[in-house]
Design brief:
Layout: E1 7-16, E2 19-29, E3 34-38, H1 45-52, E4 60-65, E5 68-69, H2 75-80, E6 83-86, H3 98-102, E7 109-112, E8 115-118, H4 120-134, H5 150-163, E9 168-172, H6 180-195, E10 199-203, H7 207-213, E11 216-221, E12 224-230, H8 236-244, H9 246-258
Parallel strand pairs: 3-10, 3-11, 6-9, 9-10
Antiparallel strand pairs: 1-2, 1-4, 4-5, 7-8, 11-12
Helix pairs in contact: 4-5, 5-6
The protein binds adenosine-5'-triphosphate (ATP) and magnesium ion.
Membrane topology: Peripheral membrane protein
Protein name: Galactose/methyl galactoside import ATP-binding protein MglA
InterPro entries: AAA+_ATPase, ABC_carbohydrate_import_ATPase, ABC_transporter-like_ATP-bd, P-loop_NTPase
């Protein structure tokens, strides 16, 4: 018996007016795996993860979490069920400290004489622990997030997901705007998450990064899933072939040739 899938999406359709952004897409994520999600611009990657995250409601299709049917009504709802999505815009508050960001929306309070106060010390302590776990180096836990580098911000966003004990972490192009050293760091974060037994969805345009960290690769093209590949059984050339449609045309031609007239 295979393990229950962490996430399964079946026949997901999402339309925006006349545009069919997702055309009956299936997607799955196993416990403890890193699934890369690749495809050309406009292929439907962000739409798929926004649907997974509860930011979009699908027009059709079924979604399951740990084998049970779910429908998330908002990203917050998904977070509460352990599915944390780090959108490309990160949704961090620039003019707040690192610790305040990590605890945004779930502040720790302590009561003194029946009155609730924010327990800033506890939040700072836990934030430091989380950043240490991820090996994120920041100048000072009191630093405003707007003063951090792109890679450090990505680290804070991931620490926030860890803090709510998410076991599915979805990242939409976390390395797109980063310098080489920071990309390394984010790839290391992803490996750390997998070591901790988390499931990760990574959207990336960088095929080399995808090969470095992923277990499997889902390829979307024009709103359809056209490939689900085991990373160690494929090659960057083959993946690029799927992304551009060359592999699809080739396999269709192969099928056509096999079919008797
Ligand atoms: N809110 C929206 N309203 C209308 N159309 C949308 C909306 N969001 C996405 N689309 C359309 O759906 C299609 C898929 O877009 P999506 O953002 O999911 O692509 P993507 O694979 O993430 O691309 P990229 O690599 O450029 O980020 C595109 O044609 C896009 O224009
Ligand atoms: Mg996108």
């Amino acid at each position: 018996m295979p393990d229950t899938l962490k996430i399964s999406m079946q026949g997901i359709v999402k339309r925006f007016g006349g545009v069919v952004a997702l055309d009956s897409v299936d997607f799955e994520l196993r416990p403890g795996e890193v699934m890369a999600l690749v495809g050309d611009n406009g292929a439907g990657k962000s739409t798929l993860v926004k649907t997974l995250a509860g930011a979009h409601t699908p027009d059709e299709g079924v979604m399951k979490l740990n084998g049970e049917r779910v429908r998330f009504t908002s990203p917050q709802d998904a977070w509460n069920r352990g599915v944390a999505t780090i959108f490309q815009e990160l949704a961090l508050a620039g003019k707040m400290t690192i610790a305040d960001n990590i605890f945004l929306g779930r502040e720790v309070t302590r009561k003194v004489a029946g009155i609730a106060f924010l327990d800033r010390r506890a939040m700072r302590r836990r934030s430091k622990e989380l950043l240490k776990e991820l090996d994120v180096v920041v100048p000072d836990i009191h630093t405003w997030v707007e003063h951090l580098s792109g890679g450090q911000r990505q680290g804070v966003a991931i620490a926030r997901a860890l803090n709510i004990d998410a076991d599915v972490i979805v990242m939409d192009e976390p390395t797109a705007a980063l310098a080489v050293a920071e990309v390394r760091k984010v790839l290391e974060f992803i490996k750390t998450l997998r070591r901790q037994g988390k499931s990760v969805v990574l959207i990336s345009h960088n095929v080399q990064d995808v090969f470095e960290v992923s277990d499997r690769i889902t390829v979307l093209r024009r709103g359809r899933r056209i490939g689900l590949l085991e990373t160690d059984k494929t090659t960057p050339e083959e993946v690029v072939g799927y992304i551009t449609g060359a592999a699809e045309t080739k396999s269709r031609r192969a099928v056509a040739q096999e079919t008797p007239a």
